[in-house]
Each structure stands twice: as C-alpha cells, then as structure tokens.
Amino acid sequence: MSIGRMDLNLLKVFDAVYEDRNLVLAGRRLNLSQSAVSHALARLRELVGDELFLRTRKGMLPTGRATEMAPTLRDSLRRIEATLGIEPFSAEKSDRRFVIAANDHVTEVIVAALSQRLREAAPGVDLVIRPSTRLDLAEQIDIGRIDLAIGIFAQVPPRFNARTLMTQGEVILMRKGHPASRRKLTLQDCAKYPLVTISVGGEEEGAVDGFILERGLARQSEMFDRHALQEALHNIGQTPRLRVTVPHSLAIPALLRESDMLSIVPTSLARALTRAGDLLRRHPPYQAGASTTTAVWHRRNDHDAGHAWLRGMVASVSHSPAADVQQKKPMNSPL
Length: 335
Prior knowledge:
Blueprint: H1 8-20, H2 23-30, H3 34-48, E1 53-56, E2 59-62, H4 64-84, E3 97-101, H5 104-121, E4 126-130, H6 137-142, E5 148-151, E6 153-155, E7 160-168, E8 170-175, H7 187-192, E9 195-198, E10 207-208, E11 211-214, E12 217-220, H8 226-234, E13 242-246, H9 252-257, E14 262-266, H10 267-273, E15 279-282, E16 291-298, H11 305-317, H12 322-326
Parallel strand pairs: 3-4, 3-5, 9-13, 9-14
Antiparallel strand pairs: 1-2, 5-16, 6-12, 7-16, 8-14, 8-15, 10-11, 11-12
Helix pairs in contact: 1-2, 1-3, 1-4, 2-3
C-alpha cells in the first residue's frame, strides 16, 4: 500500500470507531453521518486488506489486525496533532471526555473533588469512571480506552509513566460505642474482634503477595498491610480473623454499625467514612507500612495538552496526609 493513497481522515475515523465501538457515536464525535463513517471504513478496509471491524450485537468488534494497529495509529495521530497544533486544548471551551480507572475509595477521595473543580474550570469536560479492579487494566491503557489509572502500583512498565498523588498510612475503624472505643486499642483487640477487609482480587485472580500483575503492571489487590498485622499478632501467639472480605470500601460502614468488627483502611478513606459521626478511627497498635497512590498513563499521552492538563488537575486535588504516615501521635491513640 502506498502512503500516497492514504487520507489521514480515515485514521481519525478508525480511532473513533475503535474507542466507541459504535458508528453513530463515532460519527457524532467527528461530526459525520453514519453513512460517511461507514464509507470511510470501507475505504480503509480496501487499503489495509482487512475487515478491521465486525458488526455484533454489542457493537463493532475489532479484528486482530485492528487491535494490533490501534496503539501505534493512536500514538501517531496524537503526535501529529501536537506537532502541528491542530487541536490546541482550552479547558474552558473543551468538550473532551476523559476516562479514568479508579476504585470507589479513589472516587470518594479524589474523583469527587476533581469533578467539583471541573465544574468551574472546564464545564464542558466529561469524566467516565471505570473500575480499576478489572483484570485487563494494563491492556485497556495500552489500547487507549483508559486515559488515566489511579491506584497503588508496585511495578509500572517502561511504556507507562506515573505521578505520585499521595502517600498515607492506615487506620482502624470501629463503630461508635464499640467495647474498645474508650480505651487504647491493643493487639489483643485485633485478634479478639473479627475484621472487615477490602480485597479487589485474590490468589484465584492471579494476585501474588497482595498485588495483581498484568502486562508488566502490578497493582494492589488488598487495601491493608496484611503482613504487618500477621507478624504483630504472631509475636503474641495470636492470628487475625478476617470475617468479611469485600470488594467495595463503601460497604464498610454498614458492616461496622451493627457489629463489633474492626476494619483496617487507608487514612484518606477513613476520614471520608467517619464524616457522618457514627464511626471512629484509631491508629493501629502495630507499625503498619505506608502506601503511595499514583496516577498511571501511557507514554504516548505525554505531550497531549489535554491529557497533561487532566494530570495536573488530578494532582492538584490529591493530598498527602503526611502527619498520619509519620504517626506523631501514639499508634493506638484516637485520631
């Protein structure tokens, strides 16, 4: 195929259909009719010698060739646009849609604040939040269906970039009126009272040492320092009882309100869950490690002005509760 026969607009049509998996939605994005999108795809199919997309009940399914082409083509388009300044980014005027992968904890403490900031700074910008717990997270970033993933990552492959958002410790939650609420929390309490823990993927889903590894991206599967807890209790001849394990952190209040269970959660989440006043938070009676929340994106978006703006906005609404990491108060004192 000669490059002289290629119309770059065909690549923009391919890009839109690949992301939306729908001819009508792709047409709206490009201000084209459905028939114009279909005609453009037909021309591209002829040039490439592949069907590229197959019609299914769930939308336009990309072929293996399309899946192979997509990352490089999308990267090339972004570079061309950035080089020529074809689409300068203006937050105030933009109607761009950004897709962020986040769990409910991150949505509560970061995305909610981001949404409020966008209301004033970029009223036309839309956010789509997809679960960061999905097993193909790295693949979704690779093919461009996720712009930014926010979470705790032990390993980030070279094709991705990362930015630190906040570093925090963990605390223990209990209901107001809990038997241990009026005295110092002890290790014996952590053994006596069953625990509610958060796990977004276990060994059955490929988790190793609390992290899921997929395409070189290792992300946290458990939202507490299991090893620190087990070691501390082992030293006094006790073991923790993980009575309830949930995939969603916002289920914790309902589980604690009517029970004597405890829950170990990140500090920022604890602050959010105790706002209503029916839950209390305490430092753990052992030395737990700190965790760092980062934003991860594909390197092809490094020079995308809109993407860079989004990364800056996410960083600006994030915070690092350093005092909680340093634990200036006694570990088992009220917060």
